[in-house]
Amino acid sequence: MSAKGLSIIELEKVYPNKHGGKPVHAVDHISMDIAPGEFVTLLGPSGCGKTTTLRMIAGFEKPTGGDIRLGDQSIRYLSPDKRDTAMVFQTYALFPNMNIYDNIAYGLKIKKLSSAEIKTKVMGILELTGLTGLEWRHTNEISGGQQQRVALARALVMEPGVLLFDEPLSNLDAKLRIQMRTEIRKIQREVGITAVYVTHDQAEAMSMSDRIVILKDGKIEQMGTPEEVYYSPNSEFSANFIGTANMFYGTVTAQQGSRLTVSAMGKELENVPCYRTFKTGEKCTVIVRPEACSVKENGLLEAKVILSTFMGSYQLYELDIDGNRFTVHENNPKNKHIFKSGEKAFLDLDIADTHAI
Ligand SMILES: Nc1ncnc2c1ncn2[C@@H]1O[C@H](COP(=O)(O)OP(=O)(O)O)[C@@H](O)[C@H]1O
Ligand SMILES: [Mg+2]
Fold first, then answer.
1. According to CATH, where is 2.40.50.140 located in the chain?
2. Which of 64, 91, 253, 275 reaches 20 to 30 Å from 18, CA-CA?
């Protein structure tokens, strides 16, 4: 199997509005380069253009503009079967009148491989996906998780240059979904195949991806490794879409390289990390994650405890500071002082764990 790099260049899709309103800009000039063997996830809320992007890569949807390159070739004008892509659908789309073996062998038969070659490939993929022994069952005689594996096996057996997934785990129960994340990622790594994975589930994106592309209204909001998008979200949208984020608003009073002095909540906060140039007097948003904060008897900012809830691995606090709401996850609360709701306390945090946008 030869994994290929995938480049999306200024890709655009406009749907005419059948009901007379404005056309829908489903995908709005997005560009990205995906390396051979890389696992990239398109993440965003419903309607942000994930499926449309994936379907344009697969050739099920015609772009309005831009280009798609797989390996060293433009595939924009190729029919789906000529593209060297394979898709795993949310609904699995298995052939109900065929057994597992024939479902997986189907594409190879169309390619007119000999039955000996087909058998070798199908048996190999059955083993890789943990389906050995089920090959003669029909699709209604296996579980949802197993159907999902068959869908994956059927795509993998074609040895495509890139494997496309559209919310493949949505129909599984929560526990199986978490198990299948690891499973899919493990198989993808073993085979070394390039993968583009679509989900609206941030935990899925975080746990599986080499890189995450956050989409909003058909545009790329942010692209980066899970660590980059989690620790350095570049917008309030990204910060809220991945995990929980605390934000407060301030004014920049000075900048020294990648550090700001920010006047916020009656304090002068020094050495706030940042990734761009700010003007003096410019308004900014400071972001910090709940687990980087703690509630103390003394600390940076005076607060009132609004809510204090034992969550097992952490104590969940909601604080009010000057009308701003803060969420705090105090990890391993067993031997810590627990503040009750209604009590006065202080929010403490390390400025190095914040950043300004
Ligand atoms: N065939 C279509 N005709 C008109 N509008 C469409 C069509 N398919 C999708 N859209 C619109 O394009 C936008 C993006 O849709 P989609 O790519 O399915 O989003 P996602 O997969 O992120 O939920 C949405 O506003 C959706 O309503
Ligand atoms: Mg979709």
1. 244-356
2. 91
